[in-house]
Write a structure and sequence with these properties.
CATH architecture of one domain: Beta Barrel
Number of strands: 12
Largest sheet: 6 strands, antiparallel, barrel
Structural class: alpha+beta
Helix content: 25-40%
Distance between the termini: 174 Å
Number of helices: 2
């Protein structure tokens, strides 16, 4: 009996709530219609303004996040592009530096060859230009190898000159190359004289395999009473039958008492032995053709 009495009451409550919800929905719909019809500032309806006020904050957050991601991506792409451009510019710089070095080397070689060629007209014998292709000797270069040989007109004991003066002579010769013994070698020897006083002697190097190295030459067999002074020019005497006379060898650097009957004379060579790249070699003079009568 209690259950039967409560059933109609619950139904009335439910019906009442339905009516309240329906009334609320109608009122809300009416408000929406009215808000859409009522214009605010700038010609924007109240409904649109309400919707914007609700949706604008999250839209701003999303837009800010998208802008940030876009900025990071553009920065990454720009950084990669900058790195690639930097790498390309570095390669161009290296290429230009290599070209500059090659150009400077060619300019230096041309200048050296021009100096050598300018000496040819004043030399008493024909010469040919040779490139140094190897160096030997410790600690100073006592021997060098040049790229000219028998097929080019180079002969044994042919004088070898540099821009400054005499450098040595050919001691070995092959078809396409030759070995030159420099004046720095202790085993070298060349007849010389003091140009001012005509005092003669023999110049040789002071460098052997175990020596510490010196660029000075030693003029031997100079009489103790000979007139020799610092700065005197030393030239070839021609008495050794290998070097023509009058070729510049160097200048007297110091004069000592020495031992016995001879002075100790140090000569600074005029040729630069530290930087040898091109030299001049005396070329063999071709034999003069002889006319003979034909046999009948």
């Amino acid at each position: 009996m209690a259950i039967g009495r409560t059933g109609p009451g619950v139904a009335r409550v439910i019906e009442g709530r339905k009516s309240g919800f329906l009334l609320g929905a109608l009122v809300l719909a009416h408000l929406v219609v009215i808000s859409r019809q009522v214009e605010g500032e700038g010609g924007v309806s109240l409904m649109q303004r309400a919707i914007w006020s609700v949706l604008l904050p999250p839209q701003r957050v999303v837009a800010s996040a998208i802008h940030g991601v876009k900025g990071v991506w553009q920065g990454y792409v720009g950084l990669r592009g900058t790195r690639d451009e930097n790498r390309r510019l570095q390669e161009q710089v290296r290429s230009l530096e290599s070209r500059l070095e090659a150009s400077q080397e060619q300019i230096g070689e041309a200048a050296r060859l021009r100096e050598i060629l300018e000496l040819r007209p004043i030399l008493p014998f024909p010469t040919l230009t040779a490139q140094v292709i190897a160096r030997e000797g410790v600690p100073w270069f006592r021997n060098i190898t040049i790229d000219k040989g028998l097929s080019d007109g180079v002969t044994l004991n042919a004088p070898v000159l540099g821009v400054g003066g005499v450098m040595g002579r050919v001691v070995e010769v092959g078809p396409r190359a030759a070995k030159v013994q420099l004046l720095l070698d202790r085993d070298s020897g060349m007849g010389v004289r003091i140009e001012r006083t005509r005092t003669t002697g023999v110049v040789a190097g002071q460098v052997a395999f175990s020596d510490s190295g010196t660029s000075e030459l030693l003029m031997k067999y100079v009489p103790v009473l000979a007139d020799v002074a610092v700065g005197d020019v030393v030239v070839t005497s021609g008495l050794d039958q290998m070097y023509p006379k009058g070729l510049v060898v160097g200048r007297v650097r110091s004069v000592g008492k020495g031992s016995g009957l001879f002075k100790e004379v140090a000569v600074q060579p005029s040729a630069n032995f530290e930087k040898i790249e091109e030299v001049m070699v005396a070329a063999a003079t071709p034999p003069t053709p002889q006319l003979t009568e034909s046999v009948r």
